[in-house]
Amino acid sequence: PSAVPQARKASLARFLEKRKERAMSA
Amino acid sequence: PSVALFNQETLQQRLQALIEGARESWTYAIFWQSSYDYSGASVLGWGDGYYKGDDDKSKGKGKTTTSSAAEQEHRKKVLRELNSLISGSAPSATDEAVDEEVTDTEWFFLVSMTQSFVNGMGLAGQAFFNSTPVWVTGADRLVGSTCDRARQGQVFGLQTMVCIPSANGVVELGSTEPIFQSSDLMQKVRVLFNFDS
User: Fold this and answer.
1) So what's the pLDDT on residue B60?
2) How far is B40 from chain A (nearest CA, A)?
3) Which of A6, B64, B134, B197 is the most buried (most CB within 10 A)?
4) Is residue B110 within 8 angstroms of chain A, CB to CB?
5) Per residue in B31-77, pLDDT tens?
6) What is the pLDDT of residue B121?
7) How far is CA B143 from CA B34, B76, B113, B140, B156, in A?
């Protein structure tokens, strides 16, 4: 279970980065 | 491949390969990782996810959100705070990552990160507990599901939810399109996600 917060953080960072890329290319 | 290969990086690549290589139009893929909580109960928790988005959005014909202006503001506020948490900087009202509308499926994907399934609960729990894929197609079937998450998925525009068990967890896929059972997809999951075999 201790790995879950880290996994969420990495996934969240990737999700936000992709949103940023989409916003900048629009 | 050994269990040592089971890490965030390869998970992301496998989820991406599964979705981008599929004939069907999937909106997202999530890997629910199996573990045990402190009482010894079996738990499926967030492993990783890949959000592709809705094809309809790019075509400009799709319904991307049913949310009110107040709900959009709430979503953007949450995203701004999460972005600040990740970047370590103060929340900014003009951040590129949050200026865009937060679609229903994006929000559903984000909320998923907070969820887990204990002892066979939910579609993912059922799939893992019974070692059998669960495939739900159609808004009416999602609404009629005993799983809260499936009903929530329908509210946010999903028409298909699938949970396929693997060695260490469950692969969940969701789509805003109605997609019917595909043995090809299940075979791909077996190949990509059976880390122990």
Assistant:
1) 42
2) 11
3) B134
4) yes
5) 999 988 888 888 999 999 999 998 655 444 445 666 789 999 999 99
6) 92
7) 26, 27, 22, 5, 11
Q: Show contacts of B63-68: CB within 8 Å, 24+ apart.
A: B63/B157, B64/B101, B64/B103, B64/B104, B64/B105, B65/B101, B65/B102, B65/B103, B65/B104, B66/B104, B66/B157, B67/B102, B67/B104, B67/B107
ipTM: 0.86
Chain A residues closer than 8 Å to B37 by CB: 1
**Which B residues, 69 through 98, put their C-beta within 8 Å of a C-beta on chain A?**
79, 82-83, 86, 96-98
Backbone angles phi, psi at B89, to 5 degrees: -105, 170
Tokens of B137: 């197609």
Of the candidates A4, A22, A23, the beta carbon closest to that of B46 is on A4
